[in-house]
Amino acid sequence: MDKQKQEHLKDLLIKEKERIEQELAALGSKNPNAPDAEYPESGSNSEDDNAAEVTEFVDMLSVEARLEAELKDVEKALVAVEKGTYGICKYCGKEIDEKRLEARPASSSCIACKKVLTQEM
Question: What is the pLDDT of residue 26?
C-alpha cells in the first residue's frame, strides 16, 4: 500500500475515533472497562414504566458496549499504523484488500479469514 493511501486511511481512523468518542460522551461513558450508561428514571412506579426503563437501559448498555468495542478496534488499527503493520491480516499475514480497508478502516483481517471465522464458507 502506498504512503498516500495509508495516510488517507489513517485520517479515516482518526475521524472514526473522534466520532465514537463523541457518541460515548453523549452516553456519559468515560471508562471503556465499566459501563456508564445512566439508568433512566421516569418517576413513575407502574409496571409498564419500569419495563420501559429497563428496556431503555439495556439498549443503552448494548450501544455503549458496541461503541467501546469499535473504539478498541480503531485504537488497535492506529497502533498498527505506527508499527508499520497496518493493512496486514492478523491471521494469514497477507495484505488486506484496500477496498475492505476503505469500507472498514479498522479491519484487522482479510475477507477470506473473516469468512472462515464467521463460518460463511
Answer: 86
Residue whose C-alpha cell is 464458507: 121
Instruction: Please say whether the beta carbons of 101 and 9 come within 8 A.
Output: yes
Cα 114 from chain centroid (whole Å): 16
Residue 116 CB neighbour total at 10 angstroms = 14
- Strand-pair partners of 88: 95
Instruction: Give CA–CA dist 50/53, Å, rounded.
Output: 5
C-alpha distances (whole Å) from 8 to each of 11, 15, 81, 119 are 5, 11, 11, 31
The CA-based diameter of the chain, rounded to the nearest angstrom, is: 61
**pTM value > 0.85:** no
Q: For 82-121, write each residue's pLDDT tens digit.
A: 999 999 999 999 999 999 999 999 999 999 999 998 886 5
CA distance 60 to 81: 31
C-alpha cell recorded at residue 57: 437501559
